[in-house]
Each structure stands twice: as C-alpha cells, then as structure tokens.
Design brief:
single chain, 7 strands, alpha+beta
Length: about 160
C-alpha cells in the first residue's frame, strides 16, 4: 500500500510539473516564481501566519496561465481568456486601485476573501486571500497592493 501511495504521489508531482512547464513553454509565467516568503508576509496577520510555512502548489490555468497556492493565498497569472474585456468592465464590486501596474481593481468578497486583479505589460494576474478571523478584507488591502507591486516588478 505504501508503494502505491508513493507511486501515485510521484506521478501527480510529475504531471503537475509537466503541465506548468508546458504553460511556460507557451509563453506563460510560472506563478510560484513570482512569490517569495517576504512578499507573502505583507498579507499575513497573526491568525494567518501559517501561510508563511505552507508549501506552494502550482498548476496550469487556462491556455497559458498558472496558479500558485499557499494555503489561503492564491496567485493566478494570465487566467482569463479575454482579459481586456474584464479590464474595461470589471464589475460593480471592484474598486479601482492606483499605483499597481497599468490597471488594478480590489474587491471585498463578503469579508471571506480579499481579491485584487491587475494588468502589467502582456500579463494580468489575480490575488485572492482568505480573510482571517483577526482581520477584514479592507485591512488586508494595503498588504495586497504591496504584494501586487512586487509581482509587477518581477513580471518585467
């Protein structure tokens, strides 16, 4: 049984890595390469510090995108099929954010998630963070903007 579990885990890791490599070969960006422990720390509160010790998980998203999850934090790079449509009309819940890339929007999703989407050069990305018990989405906003700016810098 242990041999079977080990084999399944090895195959799953190889398939996941291969899928991300294919996305990167097609001009995509490996989302986890854009995050560091220091950049993630900008959105961590005492109740969510476990995020810093989480092992990242990366997988392909869409035609050439990828996502990276650290527990309750997720980054998606190039996830949308028609990003320019969303950029022009993000929806009524999204608030414009200045100083991040070429365009950015923030949303408090029922105080369960803080969400930010941004465009920089040829790429767009989203950040979703689960709101911990000791915070609110709006309190996480400055840290999310700092995280988004570090991602923009790495995308250049």
């Amino acid at each position: 049984m242990l041999r079977l579990v080990t084999s399944v885990l090895a195959i799953a890791g190889a398939v996941s890595g291969a899928a991300v490599s294919v996305a990167a070969e097609q001009g995509g960006v490996a989302a986890c390469s854009l995050l560091s422990r220091e950049s993630i720390a900008t959105v961590v509160t005492p109740a969510s510090k476990y995020i810093l010790d989480a092992k990242p998980s990366e997988e392909p998203v869409g035609a050439k995108g990828s996502s990276c999850s650290y527990a309750d934090l997720m980054l998606q790079v190039d996830p949308f099929a028609r990003p320019e449509e969303l950029r022009k009309a993000p929806g009524k819940d999204w608030q414009p954010v200045t100083g991040v890339g070429e365009a950015a929007y923030f949303r408090n999703n029922s105080n369960r998630f803080a969400e930010l989407m941004a465009w920089s050069g040829a790429h767009h990305f989203t950040i979703q963070v689960g709101v911990p018990s000791d915070s609110t989405a709006d309190k996480l906003k400055p840290g999310m903007i700092a995280l988004a700016n570090s991602i923009v810098a790495r995308l250049k």
